[in-house]
Amino acid sequence: MPLCVYLCYTPGCQTKMERWMPTPEAGLEAHMECPRCGVAMRCAWTGSQVRTPDLKDATSGVFRPRD
pTM of this prediction? Predict the structure, then answer.
């Protein structure tokens, strides 16, 4: 399930909305209205949900404390 980020590029507004969508295509096709100024927002970024790795699967030396 991808996370889609919508941005309003209206000067002085610059609102950001994030919505989970069923597919990246659905996120690109969705028309979101800016809650602040009412202008149609465009999808600026679509990411995907990535499973968090299990620490038991990590090899030694991958996770080291910073010096």
Answer: 0.65
